[in-house]
Design brief:
Blueprint lengths: L2 E5 L6 E5 L6 E4 L5 H15 L9 E5 L5 H18 L3 E4 L1 H5 L8 E6 L4 E8 L2 E8 H8 L6 E6 L5 H6 L3 E4 L7 H9 L29
Parallel strand pairs: 1-4, 4-5, 6-9, 9-10
Antiparallel strand pairs: 1-2, 2-3, 6-7, 7-8
Helix pairs in contact: 1-2
C-alpha cells in the first residue's frame, strides 16, 4: 500500500511517503509555511519516488489539534488531492501521532497551542479524556486529585514541571516518530478511510485567539 501523509498541526509542515517495507521518505520544513511550500514538498516527495498522485492507494492527514492555520491548510490540501485523484482519505489525530506505540497507561499526550495554552489527552484504564485551555486548567480537569505516576508524550516542555509540582511522578516518552507525517502514514495503514473527503472534520482544539463578531441583520 502506497500512502502519502501530510501534517501542518505539529511543528510546521511535513509530508511522508510510505510504500511499505523500507522506512518512509519524509520532508519537513520546521516552519508554519504549509501555504507557501506545502504543495511543492508534496511534488518533490512524489517525484523522488517516481510516483504520480493516481499511483497512491491512500492519503492521510493530521486533523489536529495543533496550529489552527496549519490544520486548516493541511486538511484542505488533503481533501483536494483526494478529490482530484479519487483516493481514500484517512484523518489521524495529533494525539495518536505523538503518543508512542504501546505506551504504558496512564499516558498524557500534550499538544502545544498559543503561549500558555495546550490541548491534552489522558488515556487510562477508564478510557480517554481530552481538554484544551490554559495549562493549569487542563491539568486540573484531566489529572486525578490523588497524585500517582503518569507517562507524558508530545510537547511536554510547558507542563512537565507543573505536573511534578502537583506530586506526580513523571516519565517522559519519545514520540512515535521524529517527523509527524511519518507517524500519520504508519497509523493510516490500519485506519478506516473517511466515507468521503468532505466528511473528514478537523479538530481545532482551542478556539482561535481572535474571532470576528457576527454582523447584525
Amino acid at each position: 500500500m502506497k500512502i502519502l501523509a501530510l501534517d501542518a498541526a505539529l511543528g510546521g509542515f511535513s509530508a511522508a511517503l510510505d510504500v511499505g517495507g523500507a522506512s518512509p521518505t519524509a520532508v519537513r520544513t520546521g516552519r508554519q509555511d504549509a501555504l507557501e511550500h506545502g504543495l511543492a514538498c508534496i511534488e518533490v516527495i512524489l517525484d523522488a519516488a517516481g510516483l504520480r498522485l493516481r499511483d497512491l492507494d491512500r492519503l492521510a492527514v493530521g486533523i489536529g489539534p495543533g496550529s489552527f492555520t496549519g490544520v486548516r491548510i493541511a486538511v484542505a490540501y488533503a481533501k483536494s488531492l483526494a478529490y482530484a485523484g479519487g483516493i481514500p482519505l484517512v484523518g489521524v489525530s495529533s494525539y495518536d501521532a505523538l503518543e508512542p506505540e504501546e505506551a504504558a497507561l496512564p499516558v498524557l499526550t500534550i499538544v502545544r497551542g498559543r503561549r500558555g495554552v495546550i490541548c491534552a489527552r489522558l488515556r487510562d484504564r477508564a478510557g480517554a479524556t481530552t481538554a484544551c485551555g490554559p495549562v493549569a486548567e487542563v491539568l486540573e480537569r484531566l489529572l486525578p486529585p490523588e497524585p500517582g505516576s503518569v507517562h507524558i508524550a508530545g510537547n511536554t516542555e510547558d507542563v512537565r514541571s507543573e505536573i511534578a509540582e502537583r506530586g506526580w511522578i513523571v516519565r517522559a516518552l519519545l514520540p512515535r516518530a521524529d517527523v509527524p507525517a511519518v507517524a500519520i502514514a504508519q497509523l493510516a495503514r490500519t485506519r478506516v478511510p473517511s466515507p468521503s473527503p468532505h466528511a473528514l472534520a478537523p479538530d481545532y482544539g482551542e478556539a482561535p485567539a481572535v474571532t470576528q463578531p457576527k454582523m447584525r441583520t
